[in-house]
Structure formats: structure tokens, C-alpha cells
Amino acid sequence: MPYRTIIEPFRIHSVQAIAFPTESEREEALRRAGYNLFGLHSAEVIIDLLTDSGTGSMSAEQWAAMMIGDESYAGSRSWFRFYDVVSSLTGLPEVIPVHQGRAAEWILFSSVAGPEAVVPNNTHFDTTRANIEFQGAEARDLVIAEGRDPSADHPFKGNMDIGALERTIAEVGPERIPLVMVTVTNNSGGGQPVSLANLRDIRAVCDRHGLPFFMDAARFAENAWFIKLREPGHADRSPRDIATEMFSLVDGVTFSAKKDAIANIGGFLAMRDPELAARCRNLLILTEGFPTYGGLAGRDLEAIATGLEEVLDERYLRYRIRSTEYLAEKCRDAGVPIVWPPGGHAVYIDAKALLPHIPQLQYPAQALAVELYRDGGVRGVEIGSVMFGVPHEDGTETPAAMELVRLAVPRRTYTQSHIDYVGEVVLSVAGRSDSLRGLRIVDQAPWLRHFTATFEPL
Ligand code: F0G
Predict the structure, then answer these.
(1) What does the pLDDT look like over 143-159, one tens digit per residue?
(2) Cα dihedral across residues 85, 215, 263, 76: positive or negative
(3) All domains of the chain in start order, with CATH
(4) Has this prediction a pTM greater than 0.90?
(5) Known catalytic residue: 450?
């Protein structure tokens, strides 16, 4: 299509006002929240890039589908539509609806992982890691070396290190590995894609050792688009065709519908193995609900089904990936260190490189996230030692591999001028980065501490 600027492929049909807290209101909000941006009220935030999860705008078609949601407890029409859309997209016959992705993780790992288990992944998302560790098992990250280096240019920085996977299997033995997982795109590693070739290689390793292969498919459509753009031989395929092949390589998926189903809530667990599915359904009934609704209303099932159809639209995906890249280019062109190439759903600022004067255990990425809010009311999230540092009994702490601030772009929600504003805020803070100071943790929870920890500026 011969158009030039890649425009938002929608017009706005319903709007929500943005709040404009003053500088002193933002300072007060930071103090109240203990310098943890999860503690802010949304009305204290100007541009909210905390997450792309559940924050997207639904289409008129999704809202219309919600209006005809069938709220029958068992066997609702909305469930059968959801089932048809999910099983025809994924090719997986066993579909278990849940209220969000981590519920699928909890059910899956409660069913397969005990204290001896080791679960390999490219990089576990925080809830995935926590759900594995909650079972007493080990979550092992095996992303390729380039995936740990923010500035290493590689088209598929989410790929798993196949040699490391083989070594892990040899070291712990296949009987201790309940399944191998891969996260597409690799959120905690910068929203980086995984190639089809890598998925095929993981499949081959799993086949050799008789191991099930599961995919965390939260951002499968964005991953499929990257394959189309970057992997030789796939440029002429439709995103749906590529996605179908990705799903064909796995035995099951966990899925948060809050990302690439462009819904505000929901998820599913899907698989081939009917015996495992039966065990998972027993837990589902205990914690989520009857198997034809999981933790969801019939209208949610409708919104997800429609979203899954919309997300593979080429015009949507071209705009989606380009709008993230647009913000990334603004940062890079001004010399702000970011994970390059940019991820699908977010720009990740490399706080270790931007703030070399702040030691990792004074949380440079948290300090940067706080400053972006203080400066311009932009809320991002720390993905560094607050989220992934390991505190030890003796009070010491092992820092995370990377110190990143993620600016996640909600789907179909902000326009180009919002993103231009975010770029201005990032550049203004980066321009005076040597004035930033670190933080100290005052209070923290035993797991997933980043959600509730409180801090004090140093
Ligand atoms: N897997 C990945 C890759 C995720 O990014 C998330 C959530 C989950 C699983 C869990 O799904 O939130 O529906 O329970 N990520 C959000 C984020 C929270 O901000 O990246 P959930």
C-alpha cells in the first residue's frame, strides 16, 4: 500500500480524559507511595506506560461482542465461540479458560512441578518464575548471550541457547524437567522475539529427550510479525500463518489475554495431552471456576475471541511494532542507551549504562523510573534488581543481570503526540542523569517484592 507515514489504523470512538497532576502533587504522590510507582493512583499519572497488560483499547467489535455475551454457568455460547477461536488458532484441542495468565501458570506448575523440578525458559517472566519457585522448583533462564547484552544487535535476541538447554538436560536429567518453556516475545529480556528456527530447534531437543514443550504465548502476534520482518523466507506469509506454525511446534501454551488478545482481562491454558488437561481442570474448578468459563464472564470470553481475530491484522501489527520503534528511535538518536533492537511492546532504557554512578544495589533503574514520573508524570516500570535481585538470609543481595526501565506501550491507546511527549520527558531526564541518586529499600515482601516494596531516596 503506497502510504508514507504509518498512521494509527483506527479512529477514536470513545475517549478518557488524562489527568495533569502538578509537580508538587507528583512529589507528594511519590512520597506517599514510598517511591514505588505501583503505589500511584492512575489519576496521578499523565502517560501510563507501566504495562501493556489489560490496558489496551478494545474495538467497537469487541464491545459489541460483549453485549451478546452468554452468561450461562455451563456450556455458554460464548464459551463455544472462545473455544473455536482458540483451538483453530493454536491447533490445541484442550482449552482451559482462566482469569489471567498467572492463573494458567499456577495451574500448570501445580500439576507438573515438584521440589526437584527444573524448568528451562529463555527468560521467565516474574509471575512464571514465582509460580515455579512457589512449588519449590527451579526456574532456569537460558536465553542466548546476545539476549543479556542490551546493545548487542541480533534479530532474535529472545532465542534460547540450545547448547545451554542440552547441558541443562544432561546436568539435571530429563526426569527432573517437567517441561521446557519459551516466552514469545521475551518480555523480561526486552520484548525480544524468538525465531521459528529456534522454536524448531527447541522442539527437536525436546523430542530427543521426550520432554513436553510449552510456550508462554502472551505476545505471540508481535513475535509472528518479527518473524515476518526479520527471518529469511517468511516475508510473504501472513501473521496468522506464521502464528499457526509457532503453535504447531509446542505441546501447550499459557496465555495472558491481556496482551495479544487486546482484552482487559482473561487468559487460557491450552495443550494436547488430555490426561494432563484433566488434572489441570480439577485445579481450575477449585480456584477459577467451571471449565466452560474459568474465571471469566461470558462477555470476557467474547472480547478475547474477537481480539484474537483482530490482533493478527497486518495493518494493526505494522502500526503496533512501528509505534514502539518510533519511541525507541527518539531515545537512540539522542544517545539514550536502550535495548536495541527495540522490543515489540516496549522500549527498555538501560539504566546501568545511563547511570553508571549508581551501584546496582542502589537500584539505578528504580531511580530512573521515579525520575521519569517526577519530571513528566510518565509511569514506567523497573525491570532490574528490584524485580529480579536475589536477597539472601545474611542481608546481602545478588543483583540482576540487567537494570532496565520498561516503557510499555498499551495497544491502540496513545497517539503519536503522546509518544512525542514521552520522548521529551526521557530526553530531559537523560540530559541531567548525573544528578540522579539511588534508593534504599525500606520494606519488602518475600516474593514479587517489586509490587509492594517501599523505598527511601539516598
Ligand atoms: N507471561 C508474560 C510474558 C507476561 O508478560 C505476563 C504479564 C504474564 C505471563 C502473566 O500474565 O498478568 O495476565 O497474569 N505481564 C504483565 C506485564 C503484567 O506488565 O508485562 P497476567
Answers:
(1) 999 999 988 999 999 99
(2) positive
(3) 23-52+314-457 (3.90.1150.10), 60-310 (3.40.640.10)
(4) yes
(5) yes
